[in-house]
Amino acid sequence: MIKLNKKYAQIIVNNRASQVDRPYTYIVDDDLKDVVKEGMRVIIPFGKGNKLIKGIVVQIIDYWNDGYSLKKVVDVLDDKPLISKELIDLSTWMKEYYLSSYIDAFQPVLPPGDFKEVNTFVEKVEDYYNKDINEDELKIISYLDINGKILLEDLKKSLKLPNINKTLNSLENRGIIETTIDIKTKIDRKLEKWVKLLQRELSLLEMYDSIGTRAVKQREIIQFLYEVKDISFKELSEKMNTTLSTIKAIEKKGLLKIYEREVNRDPIKKDISDYKKHDLSVAQRKVFDRIVRSFNKENEENKFLIHGVTGSGKTEIYLQLVEEMIKNEKGSIILVPEISLTPQTIDRFVGRFGDLVAVLHSRLSYGERFDQWRRIKEGKVKIVVGARSAVFAPFKKLGLIIIDEEHEATYKSSQNPKYNTVEVAAKRVDIENAFLVMGSATPSLETYYNSLNGNLRLLELQERVNKYALPEVIVVDMREELSNGNKSIFSKELYDSICENFRNGKQTILFLNRRGFSTFVSCRNCGYVVKCDNCDISMTYHRNMNKLRCHYCGLAINPPSICPVCKSNYIKYFGIGTEKVEELARELFPNARIARMDMDTTTGKGSHESILEDMKNGKIDILIGTQMISKGLDFENVTLVGIIAADTTLNLPDFRSPERAFQLVTQVAGRAGRGDYNGKVILQTYNPEHYSIQFSKEHDYKSFYNTEISLRQEFLYPPFLDLISLLIYGENNNKVASIAKEVYNLLVEESKWIEREILNNHIIGPYPAPLEKIKNNFRWQILIKSKRENISSLKTLLKRVCIDNKYKLKIDDVKFSIDIDPNSIL
User: N or C: which end of the chain has fewer CB within 10 A?
Assistant: First the structure.
């Protein structure tokens, strides 16, 4: 290594191909040396043709290993970094840990959308009188006076000043100009009229002279504007009781300017009432004080798990922890597992903290997401509420990440990088010296295991707030219902309880984790089941559209009236979904106000909020839904929860099925009895003896944990061994199967040097995946179980075999999907 009197930039480009998936080193010339920073976008010549493309600087280095000539950075697109050094470090870690490409690992921390489409704008915001201005600075100011807010790129092209980046930085540091970022979008910008006072170097009396003595209203407006900065015309007209013609008359005299200003696209459309601060109970106070003690000490624990029963007041603890962070001028991220939970969480945080709150989730429009991201980046908010991706919110000073319902599978990304939000949050708080607080009534086995083994601090809340009782859970054996002649999906116990609840003016939640009307359509004569041609999975009948739909690829077809195999007309709909539950409920309870909340009824913008608002305001008597209603929702008038079929999750061929069943039943049961009235849960099942059903009935997490953890240890599943799922897929089943066997043989052979014992018993497969065909792709699977100390070597081996293809496999028509720490092996 030799040191040269130059700077070098390590730059990544927007290309996922493994051949170019690495940082490229470029020379940073002297005129850009003090301008180029990590996290900025630059223009670079790339490839043999030196095509000019955009890249992101991920590292600045002083040394370069001599051996070949380097190209130079051509220009800088930003005046300040788009992403911080800490988020660069986090993305680099994700790339290595989850075996993703650089651009996939960086995409979550970049502005929403295509980073190449982000633009930097420059505008003058302050007069420069009595300030030391050089000739180049004056040229820029004069240009902005004439053209107003303008693209940085256009400014550079027009003026062509040497060292223009340094000049712009100097003007911005003195507050004369301001740079902002925006993104090209199909959404028209929302603009409104604003008014600004010109010629501020004049005294108020001199301005009066320009107006004249008779224009009293104009004088009042000038006096008002003299004391404020820019103001919207709407606000000015309301405060001064004036009209646009009066304002234009003053503009003609050269004293003020009417201009259009972009309005932020605000995703919070409604007025939110104050959410008052509650006094903490003794148990809550103990948990709160223990965490805050770590805030104020160096080298203290920075990760906590609050294991609190449903309704134990975890949210109030979160709110008061965030308040502590605001006092310390630090940002907080609050993560919820479902978008359906976001409105309720927003209500509480905005009700407590007002405009300090931003929102990030996938249901926002393109423009709304970018505006929220920009507010966070510019330091205009201190709190972010959102789903999984909000863990990457671009705070400059992050203090706290809260993960509510940390056990939820939705915290695991299914897109590259296939990150686990809990793991990413833990890494981010370590990088940024921040704190992680997780909360759940049913923590994931891995998290609870880690808390018992000292990797994070376990804090417990064993009672509901105000000593409210946990709901009574009644288990109904549906086999007995059938033998007693009841073929309905509603047991007698559930039917009678709904009737009583309705008579008493209370609300009911009915839960079934399956949408649609019927789960499959089959021929009773020959056994034929209608399956998706693309996925080889049974299609679900949706009565509202009279279509059979595949829930994996979205294919929709008309239901057959005769069997396409045996030509009989004995085609029948089997199984139930939420749509059928809704229809039957309307027949049985015709006077009840009934609503359904699932993926089919919440596709529209604001649909979640509308349903939840109606439920909150007592406009719904019976709410029917899937897992999006099973957690976090808090309605005081809900005193009955009916679980239509507790076995849907339990019967899946996955090692986490008992855990998922216990969590789902316990969480949905926790929606009942959260107010002044006792709650009741009717749990319908064909498998009442199963330990997950029995322990959920008793709200007994610890007994469930002890039973399940012993089974995990016996069968060598996490947390005792790490797990990697390798999926091989393509449209030719024979080719996929052949490559899967080649890969398996390579892994077994090459892994012998990793451990003394041969790993044959821990490399399982290859076999057709449980979901064998999706979107016309046949899928084969290999599972790898490994001790933690060997996982890094195994990842290197997987990269060599599947990503870099060092063994020259013929994989043109075959793809690989590598999932580190998968949530499911389906």
Answer: N
